[in-house]
Amino acid sequence: MLQSGAAGDCADRNMKSVHFLISPNCNLRCKYCYQLEGIPQEPSALDYHSQSRTKATAAVIDSFAEFCHKNSVEEVVVFGGEPLFYPDLFQHLVESLYARVTGIEVGAFTNGTLITEEIMRLFERLPISVLLSLDGGRERHDRMRGGFDRISRWFDRLAGLQRVRVAVQAGEVVGLYDNVSFIWSLGLRDVYVNVLESYGWYAPSDVLQFEQEYERIIQGMLSGQGEIRCALALHEMLKQSVQRHECGITGEGLACDWHGLLYPCHKAMEIGPQLAIGDIYKGLDEDLSRKIRALISEKAYGSPDAAKFPLVSFCPISTYQKHGHFGGEWNKEFCELINRKAKLVSKYHYEIEEYQGRKNKRASPVLELGAKAVHPRFAS
User: Fold this and answer.
1) Contact at 8 Å (CB) between 317 and 250?
2) Could you tell me if 317 and 271 are in contact, meaning their C-beta atoms sit under 8 angstroms apart?
3) What whole-number distance in Å separates Cα of residue 208 and Cα of residue 138?
4) Sheet holding 278-279, edge to edge
5) pLDDT tens digits for the chain (380 residues)?
6) Distance CA 320, CA 325 (A)
7) What whole-number distance in Å separates Cα of residue 212 and Cα of residue 219?
8) Residue 208 phi, psi dihedral angles, 5° rounding
9) Other beta carbons within 10 Å of 280
């Protein structure tokens, strides 16, 4: 569950959408994973991130499905850890939600390495949206994550679902276009490129290289190779007259952990239960929710860095983990990479408008590229 960091990426989430964490356990140890190395245990424990094999029970899942029914939840995003780490619980959760909640939409974030024939048939039988973490070809993916050959056997069937998007983590910026192009060639044509939030991950020299690679990716989209979803989201955001710093934790995000505790976003539970704002049994504490969200919004998005980077919504939880408070200094390389994304989207503003128009008409998105003009926002 990795965000691109552009304002607007999370702004469309509301209380009708809930993230559910089956377990914090994962079978991989990705080099850039933002989650803590320890594994959460009971909320009352001194160290909330210390015990392995923690997971939701069938009873918690049943109660969560009932919570979603009572509160008319429209979307549930299942994540982890790795949500397929406990495949029986994943299947029970998904089937319970579709059985109990009318009109529910279910999505799953997965690294794909634990897909089995039974899980694939579940994906094919139910309208589950899948966000697959894949960093490119075998060499790149195995260097950063591992397990490429365990995913590749499912590529054709995943592409055939037409409900699969791919999240590419920009862990290495050199060759980023080639790896996105490889994913498009598999028939997985809907891709996000996520900039890593980890402090110190990028060197200043990565900024220019990323800009060059991302421009090639935009050009690839415009020439019909595939879609780059984060660029389209930025394109829509830049058309707004006012940009706002906003994400789920300061807006209307909601997430549920394996115990049934509710949090203002899916990453808030990494800090621990002091950020819990209710549970699935008693419901949401509206006053506490407003208080926590307002506090974080004031500290994180009222900071000097928020004024310095108006197009970026940097994660307040990442800031807290680095500095011990929400008002700390933002990751400068991350912010600069997001700015480069925005400038490139601005550069190709008119081409992207044409692309969107052709897409809406179900025509070919192939365009003749050329720097026609710069979006007025960046004309200076």
Assistant:
1) no
2) yes
3) 25
4) 227-228, 190-194, 164-169, 129-133, 105-110, 75-79, 17-21, 255-256, 261-263, 278-279, 283-284
5) 223 333 333 333 345 899 999 998 888 888 888 654 444 334 444 344 444 568 999 999 999 999 999 999 999 999 988 999 999 999 999 999 999 999 999 999 999 999 999 999 999 999 999 999 999 999 999 999 999 999 999 999 999 999 999 999 999 999 999 999 999 999 999 999 999 998 999 999 999 999 999 999 999 999 999 999 999 999 999 998 776 777 889 888 999 999 999 999 999 988 889 999 999 999 999 999 999 999 999 999 999 999 999 889 899 999 998 999 999 999 999 999 999 999 999 999 999 999 999 988 864 444 444 444 444 333 33
6) 5
7) 11
8) -65, -40
9) 23
Angle formed by the axes of helices 229-238 and 349-360, to 10°? 110
Domains of the chain: 1-380 (3.20.20.70)
The model's pTM:
0.86
